[in-house]
Amino acid sequence: MTAPTPLPRIGDAYDPDCPTRHVLDRIGDKWAVLVMLTLKDGPVRFNDLRRRIGAISQKMLSQTLKSLERDGLVSRAAYATVPVTVEYRLTAMAQGLIGILDQITRWAEGHVGAIMDARRAHDAREVEAA
């Protein structure tokens, strides 16, 4: 009988080995967020996901979906059709994250103008300083 694997230390998100940090990295990934927001209204097929998200390569979408599935945030269902139909949907755990992602999206939409203004001002100062 083998000894159980010790649980990782939790609670220091600044520690690169902290599991919390790994979760924050996952939900902070732009493609993961866009995939989850696209799936919030129900199951979506791969090519529909790619069309809706736009500017994501097939490879990146596939990698993102596999990572989200591995983390328990997305489930994949394959149906015996010709060709095989595959749908992706959010898990119950991911549904709890959608409200937070919606809030972040609304914040971004409400502040995008100020952020773009700040960028332009910063870039202008950089040019003047050069």
TrEMBL record:
Signal peptide: none annotated. GO terms for molecular function: DNA binding. Residues 18-116 form the HTH hxlR-type domain. PROSITE patterns: HTH_HXLR. Keywords: DNA-binding, Transcription, Transcription regulation. Gene3D superfamilies: Winged helix-like DNA-binding domain superfamily/Winged helix DNA-binding domain. The keyword Cell division does not apply. This is HTH hxlR-type domain-containing protein.
